[in-house]
Design brief:
Blueprint (H helix, E strand, L loop, with lengths): L1 H73 L2 E4 L2 E4 L7 H10 L10 H9 L5
Antiparallel strand pairs: 1-2
Length: 127
């Protein structure tokens, strides 16, 4: 009986020791996993902050473009078919008109078709 008890005690001690090792490994795995989750959370927070910053910048740009659009509507500019047209009110010769266009980084418009001509005439700010 004593031998059986001794063997049983040895087996229990081995089982307890192996459980402790397993627990230490499990603790290490848990800590590694917790650290990885924490790192992922930190990265997610960084991305969220970057997205907020980008969103603010996009909102500011959108507001700037809206203001620019309002300014363009107040002036004598008209956008048509991917081009911007400026309607000058000065009565001048071709050479002076061409020079004024260059001063605002533009060119004198060359009307290519009736549709373009009709659109530009219809949107002229003055008669």
């Amino acid at each position: 009986m004593f031998a059986v008890q001794s063997i049983l005690l040895v087996m229990i001690v081995k089982a307890v020791i192996s459980l402790t090792c397993l627990s230490n490994e499990a603790k290490e795995d848990f800590e590694k996993s917790r650290k990885a989750v924490s790192d992922v959370q930190d990265n997610i927070n960084k991305v969220i902050n970057q997205l907020r910053t980008m969103g603010s910048k996009i909102t500011k740009l959108d507001n700037d473009f809206k203001a620019l659009g309002k300014d363009l509507r107040k002036t004598k500019w008209h956008k048509y078919n991917g081009h911007c047209y400026y309607y000058g009110s000065d009565s001048t010769d071709w050479f002076m008109a061409e020079r004024k266009c260059r001063e605002i980084s533009g060119y004198i418009a060359k009307i290519d078709d009736k549709e373009e001509n009709t659109n530009l005439a219809a949107n002229r700010p003055y008669s």
